[in-house]
Known about the structure:
The complex is a heterodimer of chains A (181) and B (306). With 181 residues, chain A is of the alpha+beta class. Chain A contains 6 helices and 10 strands. The longest helix of chain A has 9 residues, at 21-29. Chain A is globular. In chain A, 42% of the residues are buried. By secondary structure, chain B is mainly α. Chain B has one domain: Up-down Bundle (Formate dehydrogenase/DMSO reductase fold). Helices cover 70% and strands 2% of the residues of chain B. Chain B is built from 10 helices and 1 strand; from the N terminus they run βαααααααααα. Chain B has helices at residues 23-47, 55-78, 97-119, 128-137, 141-164, 176-196, 202-228, 232-243, 247-270, 279-301; one strand spanning 2-6. In chain B, α1 (23-47) packs across α6 (176-196), α2 packs across α6 and α7 (202-228) packs antiparallel against α9. Chain B is globular. Chains A and B meet through β2, α2, α3 and β6 of A and β1 and α3 of B. β2 of chain A pairs antiparallel with β1 (2-6) of chain B, so a sheet runs across the interface.
Amino acid sequence: MARKKKYAMFIDTLKCVGCSACVYACKSENQVPEGFCRDWVVQKTEGTFPHLSQLIRSERCQHCENAPCVTNCPTGASYYPGDGTVQVDRNLCTGCKACIAACPYDARYIHPVGFADKCTFCQHRLKEGLQPACVTACPTETLKLVDLMENSSTIEDLVNGRQIVKDKVHAGTKPKLFWLV
Amino acid sequence: MTEIISNKLNPYVYPNLDIWHYEIPLYLFLGGLAGGLLILSSGMILFKKESIENKAVRWATLLSPVILSIGMLFLLLDLEFKIHFWRFYTAFIFTSPMSWGAWMLLIFYPFSVMQALIVFKDYINFYPFILKTIKITEPHLQKIAVVNVHIGTGIGVYTGVLLSTFYARPLWNSSVLGFLFLLSGISTAAAVMLIICNSGDKRTFLKVDMYLISLEGFAATLFIIGGVTSAGAFHDAMVYLISGTYAAWFWVLFILCGLIIPLLLETLEVLNKVRYSPLVPLLVIIGSLSLRFIIVNAGQSFSTFY
């Protein structure tokens, strides 16, 4: 049996310039239909001029360890394949939208064909030993897909004492997008 | 000052959730009504076996599976991948209320239809197999009624639990919602039976409906108190319901027209101060229908859990 994996994504907000290359790379790699997106960029500006601070975050499905979409899916279409990600089996999906209502991150949408869709961490690429399309396309190397079960030195190098921010931790979903601020 | 710019596009998710339109509130209403009709008719059969001769009880046993089937049609209309509807029956997901609901239907139909067949046995003389089944099951009508009371309750509660497990939508995340929808469903069923029943039974059904409306009022109060005394998003969501965009609908259509006015008029009718008017049960039905629309829409349009 292959070694157990637990994928997570580290996003360096100081490197991100908000170019949206990750969004376009994802759209083209995963043939995301027009008007929809699996990942997106949020630009948050706070303060009063001239004392302003800006945070740019690339966002997508959090691949939660305790995912409410999986809990609420009535057919088992949303599932944990065992590599730390959350995936949707299109053949099982009825398009009931329970997962969309359940997601506290609003990471999902209904594909025009009828099934629920979202970021897969480019599972098809990972299987071939490649990195997700967004990670590959990022010109500033902001995005890093990490296997948390791997040697922790990579993660230590990545974090380098910086603060990690997770979104809506109090939702209890154990999200796996880590923003370095 | 905080300014947020996002290039997230997804329709029906942004700027606020808009995934469920008229189909789901209608289904929740019809499901609650079907559950209520089953509870009341089976309950009355249990209480007095001769009730199967009562016009309202007879109609209720028949209407329950018919109305639920219409509700199911709306549920099917809501599915985005309709040809996959049978996938509900290739898995049982313990944590998903929708899965429970789908499987519950498999118990609902045989028992509710059997009860209706027994009640209408005099009209079914064209198919020997059904007649034979009725003959076998008829002595067990009371037992079937016991099961039906529970299935009816299950369906009624389910219509609320379906929404209340989504904590990502703070307004819905109240366990009182299951009981509120159940009581609203039974009271709607009583209103429907009040319209159908013979004039001699009006008083009985008026009293039943009065009692149920009053209980529903308590459940609605608990729902509001629970939300208002909650914290963060859950508090804000309830404040949004009772004082935001949907406030006028909630107070006027549901609380005033659906609860207070019918309760008042029914009390006066029972006291023989005013004559019975079918407008009263109609108000109950409108109130119950609007409750589902208001809760579903307000829950979606309020922000996601924060």
